[in-house]
């Protein structure tokens, strides 16, 4: 057995039992990990955060009842590509190839040589790893005819060798099995890749019609059937995993990263997912699309339960950024971001504060590692998953690993006195908008790149107009200051208040220190 697995029980026996769960029993075996990353799902979409949510999500609701709800969790960036890099590597987005991520499928990977991912981390701990869904990290192809690698961004797909594996695909970043779309459902190529190889005859790759218009894809592509295909493949992986364990007479844990296509545009809910009706179950197609993600989660949980492993599976559900105010939301009184200002892409809380629900156990206080029905206001960035999983599996980090990640395992398990983050940086856009009524989409007059720094409950927004420059010094001036403890909707900008002058100066200095750092979280912290 892998040494990390063999030492797991001993590691846990040395940990103090968490006070809130009096009969906590350390696990004798490492847990499976199911990590579900939704796309553009807002803080107000889950009823655990917004009792007024109009979208039924029964499986997510039950997960929140069985586990913990984090109320102050944030995506590292308010946009897809940079956020996904940060989640997988534990680094701020600007530590990759580009500060705003790599968006096209045939650009060089956002992950730089030597940078490790959650897949690598969990493989080292002996896990069987798998990735499903939206990749969105970039990559490259060999040139047709075996003449070397293609030029980054090559637009003529006929020059690319689709018969060979996708370069810097999932298998090269730590995943034993994968079934993904390079750019999700939003951009070409509209095709599935299994273990980094395109599914289907590459000679049939050509221009097809999609809800997003005409683009490069395979004839089999149907946007509204993507979720069902991903769900089926994830269930097949679980079945193979448990069969392999039974055949070897040894328990090996799994790490399953499910990057859902829902609810990014084009809004395309399935008619049904593996026999469960989806379309027409909510007030709109947007609601149905999120309901579809909940259906998939339920099927994954049920399959794990059928194999007798649910009680020892750590399940995490979150989103890569905030929600977008679709007109149908307002028409039915649903606010995807609750009472938060902003929306997907913005530096306001609605752009990056995301739901994060975690469960581990059978749902009872005595046999659950995560206390059922609990809540935490610990400040968390999704890049913190890397250090959290490292601590979970008893691994130490090297100096170049997860440079901006801090474990929140103690907060997850309810340990009293666990240190939590004081500072957190996120990137997005500061948008100047016309006044917004409850039934209108935002009208943006001007937009600038921005970052925010949290210092406890205080939030400073800083101009980051130099963000296209690599390793930008980020010397821009402040744009806003908010006290989120009394103003979570960010209605009162205190930047000009004389009594806040020293606070602004101190936070701006800390912001620049983090922006210039080689790593923002010291090893062992």
Break the fold down into its secondary structure elements and pairings.
Blueprint lengths: L2 H4 L1 H6 L18 E7 L19 H9 L1 E7 L5 H10 L28 H7 L3 E7 L42 E5 L11 E2 L2 E2 L7 E5 L2 E5 L8 H23 L5 E6 L12 E2 L2 E2 L7 H22 L6 E7 L7 H5 L17 H4 E7 L14 E3 L3 E2 L3 H8 L16 H5 L9 E11 L10 E12 L2 E6 L14 E6 L17 H16 L9
Parallel strand pairs: 1-9, 1-12, 2-14, 2-15, 3-4, 3-9
Antiparallel strand pairs: 2-13, 4-5, 5-6, 7-8, 10-11, 12-13, 16-17, 17-18, 18-19
Helix pairs in contact: 6-7
Structure characterization notes:
It is a single chain. 23% of the residues lie in helices and 20% in strands. The protein is α/β, with parallel strands linked by helices and 525 residues long. It folds into two domains: 3-425, Alkaline Phosphatase, subunit A; 426-516, Arylsulfatase, C-terminal domain. Strands 1, 2, 3, 4, 5, 6, 9, 12, 13, 14 and 15 form an eleven-stranded mixed β-sheet that branches. The longest helix is centred in the middle third of the chain and has 23 residues, at 226-248. The two termini are 29 Å apart.
